[in-house]
Amino acid sequence: MSNNQDNLENKLSDAKAVGGGMLSKDKHISAVNTSAVEVAKTGSIKDLMLWLLAAVFLIGATLVNQYLPGYWQPANDVWVRIGIIVALIVFAVICLALTNQGRAFKILLKDAGVELRRVTWPSKDETVQYTWQVIVVIAIVGVFIWLLDNFFNWFVGIFIG
C-alpha cells in the first residue's frame, strides 16, 4: 500500500510539474499577446506627436475648401480640392493607425473577427420563423397601445368637456 501511495505521489508531483510548465508557458503567451486595453493604455511622446499631427491634418482638411483657393491657383478646381481633402484625411488615419491606440484598434478588430467566426448563425427557416414572430408581437403591442390611446383620449375628454 505504501508503494501505491508513493507511486501516486510521484504521479501527482509529475502532473504538478507539467501543469506548472503549462501555466508558465501560458503566462508567457499572454504576455506576448496583450489585450487591446493594455495596448491602448500605454502612451509615449511618439503617440502624442502623431495625435497632434493627425489633428492638424484633419483641421487642414476642413479649411482647404474655404482658404486654399485664395492662396493657390490650381485649388480653384473642385477636384483638386477634393483630392487634397482626401489625402489629408488619409494621412490623418495613417498617423492614428501608427499610435498605440491605433494598434489596439487593430487588435480589437482582429478579436472581433475571431468572435464572429464563433457565432452560430440561424438557418433560413429559423430566421423566417423569428421574423414572423416579431411582426405578430409588434402588431399585438401596436393594437394594445392604440386601444390605450383611445381610452385615455375618451377619459380625458370626459373631464375637459
TrEMBL record:
Keywords: Cell membrane, Membrane, Protein transport, Translocation, Transmembrane, Transmembrane helix, Transport. GO terms for biological process: intracellular protein transmembrane transport; protein secretion; protein targeting; protein transport by the Sec complex. The keyword Methyltransferase does not apply. The chain crosses the membrane at residues 48-67, 79-99, 130-148. GO terms for molecular function: protein transmembrane transporter activity. PROSITE patterns: SECE_SEC61G (PS01067). Coiled coil: none annotated. Component of the Sec protein translocase complex. Heterotrimer consisting of SecY, SecE and SecG subunits. The heterotrimers can form oligomers, although 1 heterotrimer is thought to be able to translocate proteins. Interacts with the ribosome. Interacts with SecDF, and other proteins may be involved. Interacts with SecA. This is Protein translocase subunit SecE. It comes from Psychrobacter aquaticus CMS 56.
